[in-house]
Amino acid sequence: MDHSKILGSVLAGGKSQRFGEDKSQVQLGDKLLIDYVLAEIIDVFNEILIVSNNPIKFNQSEKVSLIKDFKNNLGPLGGVLSAMKWIKANNKDYQWVSTFPTDTPFFKNQILKDFYNKVSLKKSKLFFIKSNNTRHNIFGLWSIDLIDKLEDDLSKGIRKVEDWADSVGVEIINMKFDKNDPFFNINTKKDLEEAKVNLLND
After folding, report:
1. Domain locations in the chain as residue ranges
2. What is the 3-state secondary structure (H, E, C) of 100-112?
3. CA distance 35 to 51
4. 156 near 113, Cβ under 8 Å?
5. What is the C-alpha to C-alpha distance for residues 134 and 34, in angstroms, rounded to an integer?
6. Which of 24, 89, 137, 176 could make a disulfide contact with 34, Cβ separation 3.0–4.6 Å?
7. Phi, psi (degrees; rounded to nearest 5) at 135
8. What is the rounded (10 degree) CA torsion for 151, 153, 157, 163?
């Protein structure tokens, strides 16, 4: 797979209602939560977008740009569409958008490489990772060809990533992990405390 045709996008526009504050800005160990995923993907892509409606902090890099959602309150699908619109507006040559959440500090670069190695671009225009019977709808690879349908469906009120993905036909890439779950995500303060323990044992 030609990585130069893929735009990396971190979807940081969530309201973090269960957590009570912007999760991306929470300190875990010696880094902000968003910087964990950035550290793992920074060498994979020519450019990375962070889609956030807040003026957030992150490890600055000439590769990384911060943009806002083109429209508020559309959820993760709106973040994906915002990245696609950015590609079009800036006349970029990217054919795919690879998406990541901000709250999975144990995700590793090798998992992304394994994911790409298992993807057959002829099979679908949308790919998600599934591990240990859990589907991870934000770890996705989205064809730019989906832009018009995505915008149309969002205008009709569709918000759930899983429902929309199933409607367009998503290819699921299965992975298995016997030890610690690298997709452990932080939704609550209790999750953060568990992540601190896991970080010490990692």
Report:
1. 3-201
2. ECCCCCCCCHHHH
3. 14
4. no
5. 22
6. 24
7. -90, 130
8. -120
